[in-house]
Amino acid sequence: MKVAVIGVGRVGLPLSLHFESLGMTVVGIDRDPRLLESLARREMPFHEEGCQELLTRSTRVRFTSAYADAHDADYVIVTVGTPVHQHIETDLSLVRQVVEGLLPILRTGQTIILRSTLAPGTTAYLKAYIELHSPWRIGQDIGLACCPERLAENAALRELSLLPQVIGCEDDFSREAACRLFASLGVKLLVTTYVSAELVKLFNNVSRYVNFAVANYLATIAAEHGQHIHELVHMSNEDYPRGVIPGPGFTAGTCLRKDFGMINERFAGTDLLLSAWKVNEYMPYHVVEHLSSQTSLHGQEVVVLGCTFKRNSDDTRDALTPKLIRYIERKVPSRILVCDPHVKDAVVDGYPNLAMDQCLPSADVVFIAVNHECFSAEAVLGHAKPGAWIVDLWNCLGTGQVVSRVAK
Known about the structure:
There is one protein chain. Helices cover 37% and strands 15% of the residues. By secondary structure, it is of the alpha/beta class. The protein has two domains: 191 residues, NAD(P)-binding Rossmann-like Domain (Rossmann fold), CATH 3.40.50; 202 residues, NAD(P)-binding Rossmann-like Domain (Rossmann fold, 3-Layer(aba) Sandwich), CATH 3.40.50. The radius of gyration is 23 Å and the shape is globular.
């Protein structure tokens, strides 16, 4: 099989490398010149477990910026981003641009696979768009299927061979073609309609987002009563068989933080998803105010540990750390430094990105914004200044306290 993947970022690149490892002929297409330059050097532009080894070993995967190179492919897989406008409106421009670029080079017998996160109705919209602006008819001349990815960063290669694949299609041609492609992964195939496939991905993400919002909301209630949320969560869950409560923490990222909007744009009322968004977005303010109720940040040197949106990742997209820093800035500290060993940049959002042994010894206040494994009690407390304040919503240090002090 010949496969063209349009958008070789965090979704498309692992998929391209995995398909190539299964013996397929793969071309990766992207418009980002820096990404293509990195791939030409056989260097991963981001961290994803196992991908650097495949990229180094794979000499047949070809990376290009030309849509015309998808002409010979049996399958054209679209993995470009689908952001949400600031007014809670799905941005379809990137997906539509890809379809517009493909129309002149498509040929009979090809199948388009939409693997991006899509708002309900997007696949049907693209079907209508293709049939209006080209001679092709879906289900007769070419295939079209919505086959969302549901992979976790740093587990993409493993989960490609593990998670069931949802296949949304509404004709026999598309169903048979999509099933033939994804059967090569050796996973269970779940065939459904366009809208159901679109909603499955959104349901997976928004349910996690709401669960985290419950934990974060409980953390704010505990703080109001002067109690420790981690102690309460532990006692609530201990040998209790129903309704396990997760721990609190910053909840963001390019999926969880926006996918509720793809559902909400069609509903006028305030609902559970909007409330979850408000709670999760409130947490940076909450931890700054929680600390400020115990000590002043004015004139203090502050270090923020973690700049990514999730644990052990180098992905800073839609992380809550910049928002946290803006609330810290309002308290007028003397200096703010950041530390994230997973991020290669020497400066992040205008702040120096230093090693722990460079910034912690002089810090008066430390905020742990991300629960990276490297931010262990041994590492943090081993470098922290005696008497420094620690804000640890994640309980990385195991103290069970959101706010604590290093022993003098």
